[in-house]
Amino acid sequence: MKQPSSLDEETVRHQFDRKCKLALKGELVDYTRHIDYLSKHEVILSELSERELESLSVIDEYDSEYFDFQALGYDIRLKDMLLAEALNALTERKRDVIMLSYFQGLSDADIARKLNLDRSTVNEHRKRSLELLKQMMEERSNDNENKKKK
């Protein structure tokens, strides 16, 4: 038979073990609740769509990155240097026709009225301008590629 003092120590030890187990179960419940909360309210960045990621970022833009043009009172800004250089190489009338047509969305008839030209003349200017732009941009991009290779 055990002595009364050792019986009390064993009882105390069992009570302590029980309290520790209850505390650990409580911590597990708290941790599980916390993880559930995080899964409902937080998203891993790698799981976001490209569109959602773009909405979270900001890209600084500076005036020096743009090329400003005017066509019959319309202010037009371009960011593409290659296109801006090609447009600068066109005559003013051809540049105006391209700008008004593609950047302001005006019809050939509207452009013709604003420039005091025939509609067919505007159409011809636009076609020729596009051919020139294509040719100039291809040449410049080929030149840039050749420079990079060297």
TrEMBL record:
CDD domains: Sigma70_r4 (cd06171). Residues 82-132 form the RNA polymerase sigma factor 70 region 4 type domain. Coiled coil: none annotated. GO terms for molecular function: DNA binding; sigma factor activity. One of its GO terms (biological process) is DNA-templated transcription initiation. This is Sigma-70 family RNA polymerase sigma factor. It comes from Sporofaciens musculi.
